[in-house]
Amino acid sequence: NSSILLFPNLCQNLEEVHLQCVTFVETDVSCLNVKFLSLSRCSMPLLSILVRLFPNLQVLSITGEHSDAGDIEEVRRKNTEFQQHTQWRSLKSLIASVEILRMLNLQSEVDTVVTFPRNVMHAADDFIVYRGMEAVFQRLKPRHLKFRYLQGMPSLAVILSASIGHLTTLTLTLDNVDYPLDSPAMVSFMFWL
Description:
Blueprint: H1 2-10, E1 16-20, E2 36-40, H2 47-53, E3 59-62, H3 69-82, E4 93-97, H4 98-104, E5 112-116, H5 127-130, H6 133-140, E6 144-150, H7 156-160, E7 169-175, H8 184-192
Parallel strand pairs: 1-2, 2-3, 3-4, 4-5, 5-6, 6-7
């Protein structure tokens, strides 16, 4: 708790913040100058706290601990409720695992999105999270998207369908995909783009 008491004094001049293993609590403090925030191993990204603390944030990089589907949906619900009255319009770039992206459930547009499976070795755990990602991308309307696709995920065309009309840059990494790039599935995806 002593670090929380010190934080208000520190944040007056900060423009960039990197934190690991943090748990935020409700506070009246706002770090108005922070433009870049990197959070590592933050288990519950509640927007009600992050938006109040960093209202002018432009770049958010966040990774989290493992959460089961129930946790994801509960945090997602709370984040959605909060955004009915407040949106994070300053945010320009978001770097997050698919799980965190789904939990944040941002309702405002974000120019650049970088997303990836939480753990490539256990990516099958993320496949259920990928379902419905097209709706997340539709709300975010990224112009620049960096996306890591693994074999067994829902259709790549479906996941990206809502983004294609907004994208100017797509960086796509295909991991553990058994078929060659000239396969019918890849050719039809490239034609679809």
